[in-house]
Specification:
Blueprint lengths: L3 E4 L2 H8 L4 E2 L16 H7 L6 H15 L4 H13 L9 H9 L7 H12 L11 H14 L5 H28 L4 H7 L4 H11 L5 E6 L3 E3 L2 E3 L4 E5 H4 L42 H15 L2
Parallel strand pairs: 1-6
Antiparallel strand pairs: 2-3, 3-6, 4-5
């Protein structure tokens, strides 16, 4: 039986994320043939998020290259423009629409791409796919068809960027709009908080992926706790982002932590976009697009 260890303190989570001795578990074995043609299994087998070592570095470099074209500032403008005509239910998915177009989806096909991304995102992480695989498989096929015709490795990275944008921004935008009474950034800025601080604090309290998984390559210690070789380590980002040893009044929504000199002594950015060996390559892009949506919704 595999030993499972949960890490909840900020220092411990950060230490594991920075240690190459902890790797991402391999995705579930796919049925025969399922990983050779576009499907959820095909995507996971090629995803940067679920790979390690040289494979991870190669795929991460490809994803970063795909993001090097559109500047975050331009994506923010595009998100603000699209969000002005988006309904309340569509607003959280405007960043997916913006990035779909930036990655090569024809404008007329963008709504179909957004719907497909949502289907894939609902089953992307192992353990969340129950009853959703068929729709996710269809979503992957739709996205591969709509995106530029490239080699499978690049096609998969384009799809992954869209899926991870959906994960990173939809819940974050909802959190801010709900918390600000539907007036978004406008109300917060009237209180002296800039948009970046507002979103960073929302990200701290509501990380897109609350728990990350790692496997110990060899015997180790985390926060003084022995971790045997092969143990499954659950990194509780939601708990680490509320560690009272790191954040003053950790359950309080306080954008001033990240606005000017308002933060407490030594309060670091949240771990929601990762850290150490595998930080999210598109975090600036995601936050920029979220800011564009929230500015549009506040007017």
């Amino acid at each position: 039986m595999t030993t499972t260890i949960r890490v909840e303190r900020h220092a411990g989570v950060r230490a594991v994320l920075s240690d190459p001795g902890f790797v991402v578990p391999a995705p579930p074995e796919a049925p025969d043939g399922a990983a050779s043609t576009p499907s959820l299994a095909w995507l996971r087998r090629r995803a940067t998020r679920f790979s390690n070592g040289d494979e991870h570095r190669r795929r991460r470099a490809l994803a970063s290259a795909l993001l090097s074209g559109p500047a975050p500032s331009e994506l923010r403008k595009q998100a603000e423009g699209r969000a002005r005509s988006a309904g309340p239910d569509q607003a959280p998915y405007v960043p997916v629409a913006v990035l779909s177009a930036a990655l090569g989806v024809p404008e007329g096909d963008v709504p179909g791409a957004v719907a497909a991304v949502r289907d894939v995102a609902s089953a992307y992480f192992p353990g969340t796919e129950e009853g959703r695989v068929e729709r996710a498989d269809a979503g992957v096929r739709t996205l591969v068809r709509l995106l530029p015709d490239t080699a499978p490795e690049e096609a998969a990275q384009r799809v992954c960027l869209l899926v991870q944008t959906c994960d990173a921004t939809a819940g974050l935008i909802r959190t801010v709009l709900d918390r600000e009474g539907g007036e978004g950034v406008g109300r917060a800025e009237q209180g002296g908080h800039d948009a970046w601080a507002l979103l960073t604090e929302a990200l701290r309290l509501s990380p897109p992926a609350p728990v990350l998984k790692r496997t110990a390559v060899g015997a180790a210690h985390v926060g003084g706790v022995p971790v045997p070789e092969g143990a499954l380590v659950l990194l509780d980002l939601a708990a680490a982002n509320r560690d009272p040893d790191v954040y003053a009044a950790p359950d309080r929504f306080a954008p001033e932590r990240y606005s000017g000199d308002g933060g407490g002594p030594g309060e670091p950015p949240p771990l929601s976009f990762g850290a150490g060996e595998r930080p999210c390559p598109g975090s600036d892009h995601a936050l920029a697009m979220a800011m564009g949506v929230l500015h549009a919704r506040s007017r």
